[in-house]
Amino acid sequence: MSKPNFTEINGAFYSDKPLNRIEIPKIMPFERGKTLNSIVDYCNQKIDKIGEIVIHVSDYRTVTVYAGLDKDNKRSVLLQVKAPESYLEDYVGIRLDSETFNTFLQTNFVITENLLNLLSITSHLATNNSIKTSDDGMSQTAVVETSVVSKEKKEIKNPITLRPYRTFAEIEQPDSMFILRLHEGNQCKLEFVKNDYWQIDAITKIKEYLNKKIIENKVSIIG
Questions:
Q1: For residues 81 and 56, is the Cβ–Cβ distance under 8 A?
Q2: For position 126, what pLDDT does the model report?
Q3: Global pTM value
Q4: Alpha-carbon distances, residue 36 vs 77, 167, 199 (angstroms)
Q5: What is the percent of the chain with per-residue pLDDT over 70, rounded to a whole number?
Q6: Which residues, at least 6 apart from 187, have a Cβ–Cβ distance to it below 8 Å?
Q7: Cα 173 from Cα 164, distance rounded (Å)
Q8: Residue 80's closest CA among 38, 43, 52?
Q9: Is the peptide bond between 174 and the residue preceding it cis, with omega within 30 degrees of 0?
Q10: What is the mean pLDDT of the chain?
Q11: What sign results for the dihedral spanned by CA atoms 108, 104, 190, 112?
């Protein structure tokens, strides 16, 4: 029960008893959420009476709320939210029959003028046994049947700007570029355009949303 004795030998310090540091109790984080509004409510209602709060928008799907620095210059995680996972990769880059393709478009993309124009082409393919296409590398022309007795040529300009559901529902989904290809047998394929600008756009929109909704002034938002 005696106190430890300390000795200095050649500039190094020694103790005759082992010493164990008593850690400061950490704040237990909330369970992971799925909406930005959960962060807004947490900050505005001052649930944990925390002084400084830092919000880090690490990517288009993940936002983490931290407490201020403690005595060890460490931050405790208070809350983390993740947007629902997107399943675009399960369908993009794969040939789909027109019916499956149209369902994919309507359930995974925001309804925009570009999407409606795309559906006006691919929805007609379901009634044909085959399609005729001409391709110059940048655009593709499809002959689709519009009535029993007439046919119409429609040019598909690539790339196509669409808005897939990828990030939090509270913000406007960012624009993304896609390439559409039509194939014999009424098959359609959508390809990604390699451009990550949409991720930066999503992070910017998340920060703008939180800045607008959070009224507590001791909150810093970085991304």
A1: no
A2: 46
A3: 0.74
A4: 16, 10, 17
A5: 81
A6: 95, 96, 97, 98, 101
A7: 7
A8: 38
A9: no
A10: 83
A11: negative
